[in-house]
Amino acid sequence: MHAGQACVKLPTRQWSRLAGHAIKMPRAQRTIADPMTQLSPPSSVALGPAFAHVGNWIFDLDNTLYPSHSQLWPQVDARITLFLQEMFGIDGLSARALQKYYYQRYGTTLKGLMDEHAIDAHAFLDFAHEIDLSLLDPNPRLGKAIEALPGRKLILTNGSRRHAENVAGKLGIIGHFEEIFDIVAADFVPKPEARTYDRFLEKHGVDPKASAMFEDLAKNLVVPSALGMKTVLVLPHDHDPFREADEQAAVQAPYIDFSTTDLASFLEAIIQARATE
Ligand SMILES: [Mg+2]
């Protein structure tokens, strides 16, 4: 199938290697990932050549390094709604609508509040990330896989450093990361804005052509792919009712090289493929 043609449902085989590279205005095709589909590990034959040149492993944080059933993002989402309620003295439904408006228009609610109301970004971030991490289990398997990846590992998040430290700390994986590039380091310009990736790459001396990016939001992979990174879309294993449907859909697009609903297995397959080269 040629990219950009009419919608076709993704095949049930979800470890998909999608041919082609970034084009200027890629058109994505979306289907809801089938939560009942059990995935088998991807072929190490396919992964070996694809990741052989990669020495920089870049990870988004929220809903990428932890599964959506940890109930972290719904809490952050609800804290942001509460922030708006208190800031404007409005009810929850109105605050929710305003939150969606800012998110759609500015990429993050925070950016909308900064641009339109000049709020204190740090106060917002502290408030939004005051959440209960008790449902988040340590993930030693993921930690072991990240540790075994050859090269540098970095987190690139639209959240705060403190949130990333708390979450990655609870997962037991933080020690494997060289650095966290957060929304403050991005001067509050969120992904998917191109200048945020540029700033990240420059600050940490990362060559995008020797990098791979793991993300749960397809739109955040458009620029990385155009820069020459290998891109992996991390999908939820089960449908998450707290998130936008189109943000957890399986996406078939030229800027997505691979998709997975199991990050640890995917990384293990890469490691295995590289070990047998
Ligand atoms: Mg995310």
Anisotropy-based shape: globular
CATH superfamily of the largest domain: HAD superfamily/HAD-like
Major pleated sheet: 6 strands, parallel
- The CATH class of the largest domain turns out to be Alpha Beta
Structural overview:
This protein has 277 residues and is α/β, with parallel strands linked by helices. It folds into two domains: 29-70 and 139-275, Rossmann fold (3-Layer(aba) Sandwich), CATH 3.40.50; 73-128, Orthogonal Bundle (DNA polymerase, domain 1). The chain has helices at 44-51, 73-88, 92-106, 109-117, 121-128, 140-148, 161-171, 194-204, 222-227, 263-275, and strands at 29-32, 56-59, 152-156, 179-181, 211-215, 230-234, 249-252, 258-260. The strands form two sheets. Strands 4-3-2-5-6-8 form a six-stranded parallel sheet, covered by helices on one side. Strands 1-7 form a two-stranded antiparallel sheet. Helix 6 (140-148) packs parallel to helix 10 (263-275). The radius of gyration is 18 Å and the shape is globular. Magnesium ion binds next to loops.
